[in-house]
Every structure is written in structure tokens, then in C-alpha cells.
Design brief:
This protein is mainly alpha-helical. The protein contains 6 helices and 2 strands; from the N terminus they run H-H-H-E-E-H-H-H. It has a single domain, classed as Ribosomal Protein S7 (Orthogonal Bundle). The longest helix is centred in the N-terminal third of the chain and has 19 residues.
Length: 156
């Protein structure tokens, strides 16, 4: 049996825009505890986005994050002798975590020179509903819709 559930810690808002979601993004972007470097990369990315798209960089980032955030996922469930993939709705905090994680990991795998350029190009692509992070969301939704016949085997 599990112990009591861990309490969620409230993130402090970032110092430039005052948004806790930015702090969450930067915490996942951070490597080896270098938070100030992660903030520098993020703010540089927002400036590059604004420069390239001639729009508000923060709004383009929010739109990209919204486009990449999934709403359904599949979980494996053993029923009888078969393992089925059962589609379930994702909790709101896990939705944002997955969206942020996909944006950052796919940006890291890109071929540009600096992390600011990689993140900028991936965010612009995601805001236009293109790029690998958006494709990953679409693939997850396709998987869930193709297995919706098993949705009555819900996990709860």
C-alpha cells in the first residue's frame, strides 16, 4: 500500500514576466543546476522569436505550448491474457509537463548551433502546428483514437 501523497510545491513566478509556467519551463530546461543560464537561454529565445516572427515572443511561446500539449494518452492494461492499450485523459499538470518536455527534448536534438536557436525554431514550428513536438502530440492522439474501443477498460 502506498504512503500519503506528496504535496505539490508552488513555483515562484519568474522575475521578468511574473509567470510560474515560465519557471516550470526553465526548471526543465536547466542542466546541472545552472538556473541562471537556463533563464538566459529562455529570455534570449523569447527575444529571438519576437525578432523572427514580428509578434510578441511570449504569446508565440504560449501558443506553441498549447499546440504541443496533449489531452489523451494510452496506458497499458492487462486484461485476461492480452495487454491492451487503454486511452485515458491526462491530468492537467501532466499535460503541461509532457508539452514542455517534448519541446525541450526535441529542441535539444535539432541541428542548429546554439540552444537559443534550436529552441526558437522548434517553438516557432510548434506555434504554426508543425515540427516534431507537434507531430508527437498528433501521434499520441492517433494512438488513443485507434484504441478507443478499449476505453471501457478504464484504469480507475
Amino acid at each position: 500500500m502506498r504512503r500519503k501523497q506528496a504535496t505539490k510545491r508552488v513555483l515562484k513566478p519568474d522575475y521578468k514576466y511574473g509567470d510560474p509556467l515560465i519557471t516550470k519551463f526553465v526548471n526543465l530546461l536547466m542542466h546541472d543546476g545552472k538556473k541562471s543560464l537556463a533563464f538566459t537561454i529562455f529570455y534570449g529565445t523569447i527575444d529571438l522569436i519576437a525578432e523572427k516572427t514580428k509578434e510578441d515572443g511570449l504569446e508565440v511561446w504560449r501558443k506553441a505550448l498549447h499546440n504541443v500539449t496533449p489531452s489523451l494518452e494510452v496506458k497499458r492494461r492487462r486484461v485476461g491474457g492480452a495487454t491492451l492499450q487503454v486511452p485515458i485523459e491526462i491530468r492537467p499538470d501532466r499535460k503541461t509537463f509532457l508539452g514542455i518536455k517534448w519541446l525541450i527534448s526535441i529542441a535539444r536534438a535539432r541541428g542548429e548551433k546554439s540552444m537559443e536557436e534550436k529552441l526558437t525554431n522548434e517553438i516557432i514550428a510548434a506555434s504554426n502546428e508543425e515540427g516534431l513536438a507537434f507531430k508527437r502530440k498528433v501521434d499520441m492522439h492517433k494512438m488513443a483514437s485507434s484504441n478507443k474501443a478499449f476505453s471501457h477498460f478504464n484504469l480507475r
